[in-house]
């Protein structure tokens, strides 16, 4: 697959230059007592510096496995990788664990959904940051302590010197998530994978954290992969989107193109399941019927066929491959929707809805910026 992205819409700085990350036909298989599970199947994409790629898909579609496969952090005794992951021109899949470990945290970082699992509960957060800085950057104890406080300041933690002495349990969820971001950014990585980092946060804190990440990405020309269930976040914070289903990318496009004219019936259904302001009370949500498939026993043909409203005989016999139309919009479907010049699908409705959602998020962002600037209560969080 080729991804020839037009100029990014959500990054302040244009992504350019040689690819930071090139993933080609990456497949990840687990050997389990219940048989083989192919959690990622033939994944390909390219990420440039300053660019953010969003990854969406239902639970179990392989999003977290993708992030972990790129980093090579899955348990080696029962995980098999095939394909290629090139980071700044270096092939990662053939590196030893010791060689990869030198890149973890320094060049490649991942922030997970649950900050408590990333933080040592019995160590003060300043100490944890300083440990990382001494390990990765060889700083002295006093340098690392000062840098840890600067990092807490960078992620907009109020009163960072005092907070650096706190234990994780003494901080609110939002502050803890900021600490994990500070940890992930400590050694100035070139690639950050953020996996559902705002799922547990309220909308204001989530907006602050995403603003912060966007600013840091632009300042440092970092590449970012943003995994999220929240389509509003994906619509407003990413340049391109990969939609995953049953371990595969089933649609790939610029964010604008994907939301304006989704081509895969699964993408169309995902967008259609967003609650709308125009819904009257008790309007049923457009849920996607059925359940995600068992990755150990995928149906022949298209994995989405049992749930697809447009499935035909061919879908149950022949697996659709991901095909790029030459503009960077790729879809794995025998009967795609919303093709240019086709009356199949209703993409313009989605475009209008996304524009509205984008405007709403921008309004919220502005409100937060004003609160931060004025120190009003909206900018403050709980914690110590
Ligand atoms: N270490 C592992 N060993 C065996 N199977 C695994 C392992 N990690 C993940 N899987 C399986 O791989 C599939 C994809 O899991 P993954 O965690 O990537 O899903 P996800 O898209 O991130 O879902 P969610 O939205 O719930 O986070 C699931 O079927 C999961 O059970
Ligand atoms: S290939 Fe067929 S079953 Fe699969 S998504 Fe397309 S129309 Fe639906
Ligand atoms: Mg996950």
Automatic annotation (TrEMBL):
Q: Which GO terms describe its molecular function?
A: ATP binding
| Chief location of this protein within or outside the cell | membrane
Membrane topology per record = Peripheral membrane protein
UniProt keyword annotations, A-Z: ATP-binding, Cell membrane, Membrane, Nucleotide-binding, Transport
List membrane-spanning regions. none
Which Pfam family, any one of them, does this sequence belong to? oligo_HPY
Q: Specify the signal sequence span.
A: none
Boundaries of every ABC transporter domain copy? 21-271
Does the record carry Methyltransferase as a key word? Answer: no
Protein localization? Cell membrane
| Record SUPFAM superfamilies | P-loop containing nucleoside triphosphate hydrolases
**What family classification does the UniProt entry report for this protein?**
Belongs to the ABC transporter superfamily.
Record NCBIfam families: oligo_HPY (TIGR01727)
The molecule here is called ABC transporter ATP-binding protein
According to its UniProt entry, this protein's organism is Dactylosporangium roseum
